[in-house]
């Protein structure tokens, strides 16, 4: 995903293995194939992935769509890890975001 498509960063980037991560603290929505929509918080994001805050009661599949309200942008992501109320995801289609 090109940097200009990323939600605005709230702070300076944090150095990580997958590239610079920007703290965002923006609302996003997880879209599941069965039509379920799960609200989440986009905690930080880089050009290759993101950290989401989502209630641990939600069972997430290996891959799903992530929508950024107000930006007309939806991307496919793959769950990389989960720790309590946090989920790490990898962006799958960085060149062609899914627009709904």
Automatic annotation (TrEMBL):
User: What domain of life is recorded for the organism?
Assistant: Bacteria
SUPFAM superfamilies, per this entry?
PilZ domain-like
MF terms (GO), sorted A to Z: cyclic-di-GMP binding
List the residue ranges of the region (Disordered).
Answer: 1-23
Q: Where is the composition biased (Basic and acidic residues)?
A: 11-23
A Pfam family recorded for this sequence: PilZ
PilZ domain residues = 16-93
Name of protein = PilZ domain-containing protein
């Amino acid at each position: 995903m090109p940097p200009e498509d990323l939600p605005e960063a709230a702070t300076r980037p944090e150095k990580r293995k997958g590239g610079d991560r920007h703290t965002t603290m923006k609302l996003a929505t997880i879209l599941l194939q069965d039509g379920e929509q799960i609200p989440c918080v986009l905690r930080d994001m880089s050009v290759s992935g993101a950290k989401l805050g989502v209630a641990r009661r939600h069972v997430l599949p290996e891959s799903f769509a992530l929508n950024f309200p107000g930006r007309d942008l939806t991307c496919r992501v793959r769950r990389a890890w989960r720790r309590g109320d946090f989920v790490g995801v990898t962006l799958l289609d960085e060149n062609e975001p899914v627009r709904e």
